[in-house]
Amino acid sequence: xxxxxxxxxxxxxxxxxxxxxxxxxxxxxxxxxxxxxxxxxxxxxxxxxxxxxxxxxxxxxxxxxxxxxxxxxxxxxxxxxxxxxxxxxxxxxxxxxxxxxxxxxxxxxxxxxxxxxxxxxxxxxxxxxxxxxxxxxxxxxxxxxxxxxxxxxxxxxxxxxxxxxxxxxxxxxxxxxxxxxxxxxxxxxxxxxxxxxxxxxxxxxxxxxxxxxxxxxxxxxxxxxxxxxxxxxxxxxxxxxxxxxxxxxxxxxxxxxxxxxxxxxxxxxxxxxxxxxxxxxxxxxxxxxxxxxxxxxxxxxxxxxxxxxxxxxxxxxxxxxxxxxxxxxxxxxxxxxxxxxxxxxxxxxxxxxxxxxxxxxxxxxxxxxxxxxxxxxxxxxxxxxxxxxxxxxxxxxxxxxxxxxxxxxxxxxxxxxxxxxxxxxxxxxxxxxxxxxxxxxxxxxxxxxxxxxxxxxxxxxxxxxxxxxxxxxxxxxxxxxxxxxxxxxxxxxxxxxx
Length: 498
Known about the structure:
Elements: H1 28-36, H2 42-56, E1 63-66, H3 68-83, E2 94-98, H4 124-131, E3 135-140, E4 152-153, E5 157-158, H5 174-181, E6 187-192, H6 198-204, E7 207-210, E8 230-235, H7 238-248, H8 264-268, E9 276-279, H9 294-309, E10 313-316, H10 325-340, H11 351-363, H12 366-373, H13 375-383, E11 391-395, H14 412-422, H15 428-432, E12 436-443, E13 449-455, H16 461-475
Parallel strand pairs: 2-3, 9-10, 9-11
Antiparallel strand pairs: 1-3, 4-5, 6-8, 7-8, 7-12, 11-13, 12-13
Helix pairs in contact: 2-3, 10-11, 10-12
């Protein structure tokens, strides 16, 4: 793919013009612009996406449900609307959503085995995507009820990392991350309850945004997993992630959390100013071992040096996490129990899921109420860092992506230990409800993607997005693509990938 190195006048970042053939349009914003100026059709983009999904389903296995016929019908209608002069932010652009998100006419199995009835209505976030003109080509794989940082299970098999098919793309939004990394769609939505957007972003060389709690509606649930889970975008660039966030953001009247609106894409174009950045290697207390892989430390150190080159003040400093984990476990396990109660045949659930649901029943009531009541104190204690500092920089994960099967067959206790050891940095921000952005931080010695987190206080997405965009212009991570990814379409021929 040829790259035009001219500067984007709005952002100062390298403009990535790649032509107008459907096979050359890789970015969400790029596709939207090409559709608006008539240089490509929605039908061509959607057909390409569907062909790429089919070509990689036996290898990457990113999708649980594919809406091939419906998506092509919707693309034809989008083309008619575009020809009539209608313009919307994503009119005719193919995107994907995670298997925990309701799409009318499709089941919502959330990684579980069994027969689930089709949903009668779209969730609020899907309604907003459609209102912006987006075409949902399918629902991506997620591990069972989103509990683990891998995307494997008997209901759908193994979702593999496009950078190395022997490794996981992460989880639980691994299908969405794999779909974007492999070039099946330009961007996708995931959900993040303990890092489930940020972890697969790190392990798939993507930008992943966990927004402020309630920024994107979780309706028909007033909140998800007792308030720890939110919806967020995965994309190759900050601009694409911000565009999808702007389109998806907003609330339903029944939502419990309704933060003030932001303009994420406008933040991409703003200089963040000179910021005070705390670099932290400390993970919250969990009473388990959490060794940091040397490749991760080196990669995040390089990100810190890049931020310093950009003029920011960076020094090591640690937040006071206290025992924030004691508030996370009741909320997470009660949430698992609430979701497990919706499953038509609970005997098909993983034994670890059944164990978490049992624990959730024990921790509901007074324990859960105390855990939720502690949130304000936790915000005050951890948030004290944002007096002397503007942004917290940490690794997204402590390790590179594990091999497929490493965690899938462990006992519940061993799974928890291994999961905490690999991913100890993301979940405290779910308890707080605050925003974070995972950005690509380079690669391990084995060529596996690694990530760094930019974390902020309440409603801090604009600053984090602005800083991420500046860092992207410096590090140019979008120039790196997985080997053997699905390639350009030449007529009806498409590369089948690895």
